Please model this.
Amino acid sequence: MKVVVCVKQTPSTTATISVNDNVVTWEDTGSGKPNVVNPWDEYTIEEGIRLKENHGATETIALTFGSADSVDVLRTGLAMGCTSAVHISNEGAEEVDALDTAAVLAAAIEKVEDVKVAMCGKQAIDGDSGVMPMLVARKLGWTPLTFVAAINEITEDSITVERLLENGRQVITAKLPVVMSVVKEINEPRYPSFMGIRKANRATVPTWSLDDLGVSVSAPRVNWQKIYSLPAREGSVEMIDGDSMNDKAKKLVDKLFEEKVI
Amino acid sequence: MSGVGVYIENYEGKMMTVSQEALGAARQTANDLGKSLTAVVIGQNVADVAAAAFDLGADSVIGSDHAALAEYRAEAFGPLLTQLVQEAGLDVLIAGATTQGRDMTAWLAADLNAGLIADATALKVDGDRVVATRPVYAGKLLSDTVIPEGMQIISLRSRAFAPAESTGGSGSAQWVDANVGDISTEVTGFKAKEGGVSLTDAKIIVSGGRGVGGPEGFDPVRALADTLGGALGASRATVDAGWIPYDHQVGQTGKTVSPDLYIACGISGAIQHQAGMRTSKIIVAINKDSEAPIFGLAHYGVVGDLFDVVPAVEAEFKKRLG
Ligand SMILES: Cc1cc2nc3c(=O)[nH]c(=O)nc-3n(C[C@H](O)[C@H](O)[C@H](O)COP(=O)(O)OP(=O)(O)OC[C@H]3O[C@@H](n4cnc5c(N)ncnc54)[C@H](O)[C@@H]3O)c2cc1C
Ligand SMILES: Nc1ncnc2c1ncn2[C@@H]1O[C@H](COP(=O)(O)O)[C@@H](O)[C@H]1O
Model:
């Protein structure tokens, strides 16, 4: 049984993001790298590796669709413990919408063969859509299991998971193969080991083209007509002062009643 | 034939708040497009939900009411939604951006090879297209997005739209058979969330950060939330420390919320926390460090020990709210 984890490269969470003429750029002015593994995908990688370590999966393969430098995120996956990785090049297809991205990922998952569990993160922190796992599931015709917070049991042909929903936790059993998305609660991602990093840096990561996959992409079904910064918040913070704590509390409460938010 | 559809979610036989908001936004959109509004209701014993949809402004209600639909399962609900949307000739479908709403809008988009916009916070109509504004890059930017051709599928962020108001309307729903055939999933349990208000629906959220110092440190924060009838939030630092369960986490890797009032107690206001709460209407920060970044975002600030400030504020509210 093979497991595939879909990993996306995104701007670092601390990156300063700016937009000019609808073009978004970012840099990390701190110590960090400007691009990182999408934070939600760290949980995916970890869970994929655990399926191999604890539940008899034979391989955990990291997959990304993106530019040449997105191979970085695959190296992180390898350093954490994925057995191999595949980069799908977006050359000539830089503007791909969610549905076509799903078609690309699904075709790659099929090409890997024998995959029983494909995993995505809950959402990517650039587009913030959170729709990929369901789209990939539909492209493959596999059962979708989104927002998984725990895998209770997995056998050769079935899986039981807990899904974290607004009103509670749903326990659901499905036949394999499935496409899952996982939420943060599911695990605590490990740090890559020193040995892992060395191995990952030496590993060869194959690149597949869209031609290799036999997928062609169309014009995006969604246009981002305009991208712009948030309107600046009016005014600055009003600090509440007072002679005593009770006085401060009273003043704050007055303000909140005036704001009509109570 | 064409029309605007709205996907209605129900929980225990009641329409979810987010669906009331979606009805409001969809009604406005339908009016602006000069189209009719159809509510789609799927579940078991959902006649009341259908009636509520008429009352909240739907021109017609279609759906399926069946025992096999008692519990939400994507593979049972998805094909029905596609079938209903096609039969009714809907060319715009609006839903809440909940876990179920994201699932169902994506299901439909894949089936109909259509454009999909998730988590919109504003809608407007331009010609015969809907322009949806949505936060991107963790809420650091906004984007106006549009689906230039064909079916338009859009999910809406909770609390970004005013709920539809009662119109006194009524009608009879058209139900179709649920052809829930061979399904490879089985729901074997549901653990309902214990009490408390759900974070994404809450009008008021009181959150605690590392400043609470430990699991018991949440007591005054929880007490203030209870007094205000609000929900209890938390920073990731406290969740990672095991002081409080993950479903309270607000932020980039937690929940995105936009209450009328957000009170941050002992939270520094890291960029990843801000990503989840910056669209709150009024933000209050209580922190002993006057330099904490949260004050840069807050409308009102109190510098002090949260264990003094929070109980004092709670006592004051108790006095006023009686
Ligand atoms: C990929 C990634 C994703 C992340 N996602 C999230 C997320 O979803 N949500 C999130 O919250 N964080 C997230 N973080 C973590 C974030 O960077 C911060 O580490 C975290 O928000 C800090 O939590 P805090 O404010 O509670 O703690 P701290 O930053 O330690 O702040 C504690 C504050 O409490 C104040 N304080 C202490 N004692 C008292 C007292 N007695 N009275 C009053 N004030 C007091 C201090 O002055 C300080 O400002 C993420 C980080 C990364 C790298
Ligand atoms: N280009 C991509 N390559 C690999 N995985 C992706 C890509 N885009 C999205 N994903 C996966 O889909 C999840 C949800 O993404 P999204 O629907 O774009 O928010 C991410 O957490 C990834 O696991």
